[in-house]
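Appendix B. Chain record.
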Amino acid sequence: MATRRDFLHTTAVLAGSMLAAGRWTAVASEPLLKRRIPSTGEALPVIGMGTSGSFEVPIGGPEYRALEQVLKIFFAGGARLIDTAPTYSNAEDVLGQLLQESGLRKQAFIATKLSGVTGRKHGLSQFNATLRRLHTDHVELLQVHNLGDWRTQIALARELKAQGKVKYVGVTHYLDRAQDQLAEVVQETRPDFLQINYSVTHPGAERRVLPLARDLGVAVLANRNFDDGALFQRVRGKALPAWASEAGIGSWAQMFLKFVLSHEAVTAAIPATGKPDRQSDNLEAGIGPMLTTKQKAALLELFA
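C-alpha cells predicted for this chain:
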C-alpha cells in the first residue's frame, strides 16, 4: 500500500510532467483532511495557500513559472483555498492569470479582501477591480481586512453576498494585539469566517478568538503559521523531536502546520510559498494524525 509520502511525491511528479507537456488537467487525488464551514456544512481541505510575497512577482518571469507548478501541485494534492488581497501588490493579477491559463478556476476557493478602503463607494470600486484582476465574476470568500472601516465594509460584503458575487463573508487581522477587537467584532457581526495569526510562537488566539469561533460556528483561517519565516531560523540545524514520527511528521514545516491544525476550531491553515518542493511538504501536514495535547505542550515548551 502506498504511503502518504509516496502519494504526495507522485502528485508532484505528475504536476511537473503535466506542466512540461502543457496539460493543465486536474489530477484525481487521495483527499486531504477536510473540515466543515459551520455556516453551510461545506467541506474545505485543511491546507490552503497564501499569496502575500510569494505571488508578488512579474508575470511571465521564472518565479511566475515556478508558481505554475506550485499551483498544479496544490490542486493535484486536493487543496482548494487560496487567500489573497488587492493590497498584496500584483498578487491578484498573478493568481488570476495563472487560474485563467490553467483552466482551474472552478476548482479554486478564492478568498480575497476589502483592504485599506473607507466608505461603500471605494469598497465597491475595489471589489470590482478585484474581479477584473482575478478574471472571475465572483469570489468564494470576501473578508474585511484588518477590520478597516469594518461596519461599512461588512455591510457591503453582505450586499455582494446577496447578489451572488460572494459566497461567504469574513473579517481578518494578523496581530496579537488586535485579537480582542477581532473577537468583539465577530461576537457582534457573526461572519461566516474569521482569519487570525496563530503559530507555535504566537498561540494567543487560543485564549479568546478560537473558543469564540467554535462556540459561534465561525470558520477560522490561520495566517502567519511560520511567524513570517522566523520559526525556521529558530530550528535551523536542529533535529525534529523524537516523537515527531508518531504523527507522521517529516519536516519542521509539517510540525508547525500540524500544531495549527490540531486546534479543533481551525478550519484551514494558509501558508505561502513560491517553491514547488515546499508546496509538496506543506500538503503533507494535512494528511494523517494531528498532534495530541501532550505533543502540543511539548512543542510549546521547546519554543518557550
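Further analysis of this model is presented in Appendix C.
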